[in-house]
Design goal:
Blueprint: H1 12-24, H2 29-38, H3 45-69, E1 77-87, E2 90-99, E3 104-110, H4 115-129, E4 134-137, H5 141-150, E5 156-158, H6 164-168, H7 171-180, H8 186-203, H9 212-227, H10 232-239, E6 243-245, E7 258-260
Parallel strand pairs: 1-4, 4-5
Antiparallel strand pairs: 1-2, 2-3, 6-7
Amino acid sequence: MRNPFKYFKTSPKTIRLAVMMYIRFPLSLRNVEDLLHERGIDITHETVRFWWNRFGPMFAAQIRKRRVASHNFSNWTWHLDEVFVKINGELLYLWRAVDHEGEVLETNVTRRRDRHAALRFLRKTMKRYGNPHLVVTDRLGSYKAAMKTIGNAGRQETGRRLNNRAENSHLPFQRRERAMGKFRSFETLQKFVSTQSSVHNHFSHERHLSRRETFKQNRTTALAEWRQLAAWDKINAQFGRRVRLCLTPPRCGRAAHLRWTD
């Protein structure tokens, strides 16, 4: 894999900062431009647009890959829900799968919400995360037909207020949608929701469930991992050999270091 920042004059640190600010927080392109200007970084809002379209999906894919490889998700209970999104007068459906801890597993945008759309969404989620023990949905008939097709009809559960976990997971997206002034195309919506879900999972620390010291440590770790995204090829191009970052806790007061391998 080659260095993705090879032909960019701007430092990767600045690009990661701009992408994180735009995707993580409900800011417009011009808001990000003004905030970066206060830091002495003079760019236009179109540059921010280009950066997040170019690097946002790549950063999200790396976060998702690490999360799946480390099995940092739960198959105990999944919550499935769909929400209406209107683009240029056309009504679309945003499907979302959330585990029992509130981590977004998968998102998908379709033009229908029939059995085929629900079945495709379930198969896509189960292919990446496995088979859940329990699936909580609303009373939409498409879920029941899809669960019956894949043979998990006995694992479906519906009820009043049981699916609040999935419905609350739409709130960050809805706040972001209002800040962006709606979406303009189907492809942009699909790209943004998949990218935002991975970034939201990465920086979701559940501060209301942990102590202040634990929250600060998790926040620092998440920010450090974000700054390492797509950084391997830059180091390889600079030193001409492979590098492995040692993420083990430092010992004897020593900081984390780079380990060279031939």
